[in-house]
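Reviewers of the previous submission asked for a worked example of the structure-prediction workflow described in the proposal, so we include one complete record here. The input consisted solely of the amino acid sequence. No template or homolog information was supplied to the procedure at any stage.
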Amino acid sequence: MVDRRHVLALLLLAAGTSGAQGWPRGELYAPPTGDSVAPPVAREFRAAWLATVDNIDWPSKPGLPVAQQQAELRALFDAAERVHLNAIVFQVRPSADALYRSRIEPWSYFLTGAMGRAPQPMWDPLTFAIDEAHRRGMELHAWFNPYRSRHPGDKGRAAATHVSRAAPAWHHRYGPYGWMDPGEPGVRNRTRDVILDVVRRYDVDGVHLDDYFYPYPERNRRGVEIPFPDGRSWSRYQRSGGRLSRDDWRRKNVDDLIHELYDSVKAVKPWVKVGISPFGIWRPGHPSTVSGFDAYDKLYADSRRWLNEGWVDYFTPQLYWQVTAPRQPYGDLLAWWRAENTRGRHLWPGNYTGRASAKGRTTWPVSEIFEQVQETRRQLGALSGNVHFPMNAFVHSTDRLNDRLAAGPYAEPALVPAAAWLTRGTAGSPAVSVRDRPEGIELRVQRPVPPTVRPDPREARDATRTRPVATPGPAANDPRWWVVRAAYPDGWRVQIVDATQEVVRFSVDPAGSYPGAITVSAIDRTGQESPPQVVRR
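From that input alone, the workflow returned the following C-alpha cells.
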C-alpha cells in the first residue's frame, strides 16, 4: 500500500513548484546566460522498473477497487516525477497474462485477483500508464516476460485462454513456476505476437525483455539441480536432422526470439525502442576480475551476441553489485560491456536501488546509488543512463533518497538520449505564437504542417483503379515532446511537454518578472531535436 503521508508530501511539493495562479515556471536547469541562446538540456536515461509480478510495486494487492488502483499508480508516477525520472518500464506481461486489453492472453491475477477476470468497471492500465507518463514528459516502455507462464504468487486457477490450458504441450512445471518451452516454435511466435500486438495498438516508446529466458535452475530437496523438461522439443529437433549440442540449441532458440523480435518491431514501428536487461555477467572471467553465475551456461542467454549484433536499441545489464564488490565490481563490469558495444547502441545499466531504499531492512547506504550513477556518467558521458529496481524504492525513500537525488545527481531535468540509427531526419520546428497574460506567458505550439501530397493526374484518369486509403499515423520524425526554454533573471527554466499539448505557460517570478528569451524545439520519437524557434528575445 502506498503511504498516504508520502502521497500528501508529493502533492504539497508539486503545489510548491507553481508560480502565480498555478502557472508552472518550469524546472531551473541552467544559470543566466545574458543572451537568447538557450543552453542545451542534459541527455540521460533515468528510468525505473515498475514491477507488477507478485504485486512488487503495483497494485499493492490483487483485486483492489479500480479507483484505488489508479490512485496508487498515479502516486508512483508522482514519485518518479519528483526525482526527475524520464522513463518508466512498466511490466504488462508477468506470466503469459496481461495488464492491458489483450485478445491473446487473459487478464492478470495480480490486477483483478482472478486470472481472466476483467476489471470492473473496465479500464486499461497500459493506456492509463502511457497517458500518465506522457503527461509528465516521461517515456513509457512496456515490459514483457518472454517465457514464464505461472508464478507462485498467483494463487488462482488458470483461465481457459491461458497457455497452460490452451496449449498444454508448450507448458511445463519447473519448481514452483510454470514455464513455456523456448524450443517450441509456437512459443516463440506467441511471445512475438503478444509484443507486436501491443506495439501496434498502443503508443509505447519502447518494449523491454527482462533476464528470464530459460529459467534460473531449481533444485530438489536433496539439492540436486532439476533438469529443464524440454525433452519433447529436443527430440523433435534431433529427428529433423539438427546437429547442434543441446546447450547450443537452447541458446539458438533464445537468439532466434531476440533477432526476430527486433526485426518485427522495426517493421511495424521503427521508432519503438527495443531493450533487454540480461543478467549482468555474460560469463565468469569476462572481465578477468569477475566471477559468479554463468548466464550463458545456465540461462542459455548469449547476451553479448545480442549487443554485438545490434539486436537491441538499448541494453541494460543488471549490475546489481556494489562499486567495491570484490568479485563483481560495478565499474569493471560496466567497462567490459562498454567495450562490447561495437554497434554503438545505448548502454544503460540496471541498478538494485531497492537494496538502499526499501520498506524493510536495507543492505546498502543510499550513497551507493549515487556512486553507481556517477560511475555510469564517468564511463558513458553524454549518453549515460541508469534503470532503477524496483520503483517502490522511490516510494519508501529511505534516508531521504528522493530529496537527495532531486537536489544532487538528478537536480536538472534530462531528455532521453537520441537513437540516431532509427531515423534519417529530425522533427520540423514547431509553429509558435506567444501572448502576454497578467499571470505570465502563454505559448500556443503547433506541429509543422506536413507537405501536401498532390494526386498523380494519370491515376485520376484511370477510373477503374482503386487504391486503399492509408490511415495516417505517427512517423519516426513526428514530434513526441516540445522542449520550451525560458530565461528568467535567476536562470533558464525548461518544460518538457507532450507534443499533443498545444498550450504551454510560464508564470511570472515572485518579483513579478516575465520570462525574457523563450525558445521552443521539437523532439521526435527517436529523440532527435529540431532547430529551436526563438519566439521571444
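The CA atoms of residues 351 and 388 lie 5 Å apart. We consider this example representative of the routine output the project will generate in years two and three.
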